[in-house]
Design a protein that fits this description.
There is one protein chain. Helix content is 43%, strand content 19%. The chain is of the alpha/beta class and 338 residues long. β6 (134-139) and β7 form a beta hairpin. 48% of the residues are buried. Bound molecules: 5'-O-[(R)-(carboxyoxy)(hydroxy)phosphoryl]adenosine.
C-alpha cells in the first residue's frame, strides 16, 4: 500500500497544491499572483485574498491531475511557516478543515525544510536522490543559508545572511536599474549578454560562514549614481554589463563561503535550493565548483526552485512516516530558523 500525501503551499504569493505517493510526484499545480507586479513587491493583504480565491481550484486540480479523490489521501501536509501570516493562515486553515472532513492527519512543514528536501522528489522510479550528509545552499528572496543536512530531521545552519538575502540583492539592484519586480530573472537574462568583468563591486569581509550582501548593494548604487553624472543614459547603455558584473559578484560571494563550509565539514555533495537557484550563472558555477572538487552537485529542476507544494508534500511525507503530525491548535508562524 502506498502512502499518498497532498501538499499545500501558501507562504508568500504562490498558491500551490501537489500530490506525492511514496516520494513519486503525481501532480504539482501552482497559481501565481500577478496582482503584485504593479506595486514592485508582494502586498500581504492582496496575497491572502488571492490565496482564498485560488486555493479550492488549485487543490481540486492537483487531485484531478493525480487521478485521485480526497478519500485516497493518507495525510495533508501544509506550510506552517515561515512566511506571510495572512497567506499562511489560508493554507493552514484549508488543510486543517479538509483533513477534519476526510478524518486524516495533517503534517506541518517548515517551508525551508521543503526547499532542502525538494531534491528527494522523484518524477520517475529510476531517479536518483541525495545521500546524507550533504550541504544545501538555500538561496531565496528571504534567506541565504548554508545548511548541513544530516537527515530529513537533522539540519544545522552553518551560516546565514546578516543583512540582505541573495534574492534581495538581485531584486534591489534590479529595482535601481528600473527593472520590474522580482528583478532576479531579468538580471539573469541580461547577464547572458553582458561582460562580467565590466564593473567591480564591493565584496564583504565577514568572519565565519555568514553572508552579507548590503555592501554590494550600496556599491552597485554608487556606481550607477557616479556614472549617471557623466552619462544620464548610463543604465540603459550598460544594463547588460551591469547585470553580468552584479551576477558574477553575487556568485563569487556565495561560492566563497560554500567552499569554506565544504572544507570544514568534508561532505561529498552540495545541493542548492530556493528561488535564486534558478539563476543560470549560479547553477553553472555550482556545477563547476563541484566538478573541480569531485563532489556531487544536486541542481533542482527550475520548477522546484520557487515556491511549490511538491516540496511541501515531500517534507510532509518524511514526517508522516515518523508519525509526526500537527495538532489542530498549532498556528502558523511568520519567522523561524531551520
Ligand atoms: O524562493 P523564492 O521563490 O521565494 C522567496 O523567498 O521570496 O525566491 C524568490 C527570489 C526572488 O528574489 C527572485 O528574484 C529570485 O528568487 N529569483 C532569481 C531567479 N529566479 C528567481 N534570482 C536570480 N536569477 C533567477 N533566474
Amino acid at each position: 500500500m502506498s502512502t499518498t500525501i497532498l501538499g499545500i503551499e501558501s507562504s508568500c504569493d504562490d498558491t500551490s497544491a501537489a500530490v506525492i505517493s511514496d516520494g513519486l510526484l503525481r501532480s504539482n499545480v501552482i497559481a501565481s499572483q500577478k496582482v503584485h507586479e504593479q506595486f514592485g513587491g508582494v502586498v500581504p493583504e492582496l496575497a491572502s485574498r488571492a490565496h482564498q480565491q485560488n486555493i479550492l481550484p488549485v487543490v481540486s486540480e492537483a487531485l484531478r491531475q493525480a487521478g485521485i479523490s480526497g478519500s485516497d489521501l493518507d495525510a495533508i501536509a501544509f506550510t506552517r511557516g515561515p512566511g506571510l501570516l495572512g497567506s499562511l493562515l489560508v493554507g493552514t486553515s484549508f488543510a486543517k478543515g479538509m483533513a477534519i472532513g476526510l478524518d486524516i492527519p495533517t503534517v506541518d512543514v517548515n517551508h525551508l525544510h521543503g526547499h532542502v528536501l525538494s531534491h528527494f522528489i522523484k518524477e520517475s522510479e529510476e531517479q536518483k536522490i541525495p545521500e546524507f550528509p550533504f550541504i544545501c545552499l538555500l538561496i531565496s528572496g528571504g534567506n541565504s543559508q548554508i545548511i548541513l543536512v544530516r537527515s530529513p530531521f537533522d539540519m544545522e545552519i552553518l551560516g546565514s545572511t546578516i543583512d540582505d538575502a541573495a534574492g534581495e540583492a538581485f531584486d534591489k539592484c534590479a529595482k535601481v536599474m528600473g527593472l520590474p519586480y522580482p528583478g532576479g530573472p531579468y538580471i539573469d537574462r541580461l547577464a547572458a549578454e553582458g561582460d562580467p568583468e565590466a564593473f567591480k563591486f564591493a565584496k564583504p569581509h565577514i568572519q565565519g560562514l555568514d553572508y552579507s550582501f548590503s555592501g554590494l548593494k550600496t556599491s552597485f548604487l554608487y556606481t550607477i549614481r557616479d556614472n549617471m553624472k557623466i552619462d544620464p543614459d548610463f543604465v540603459e547603455n550598460r544594463k547588460a554589463d551591469l547585470a553580468a558584473s552584479l551576477q558574477k559578484t553575487i556568485i563569487e560571494i556565495l561560492i566563497d563561503k560554500l567552499s569554506k563550509a565544504v572544507r570544514q565539514t568534508g561532505v561529498k555533495a552540495v545541493a542548492i535550493g530556493g528561488g535564486v537557484s534558478a539563476n543560470s550563472g549560479v547553477r553553472a558555477a555550482i556545477q563547476d565548483f563541484c566538478d573541480r572538487r569531485g563532489l556531487k552537485a544536486w541542481i533542482p529542476k527550475r520548477s522546484f526552485t520557487t515556491d511549490n507544494a511538491a516540496m511541501v508534500a515531500m517534507a510532509g511525507y518524511f514526517k508522516y512516516l515518523k508519525g509526526d503530525f500537527c495538532r489542530l491548535d498549532m498556528p502558523p508562524y511568520s519567522k523561524v530558523e531551520v
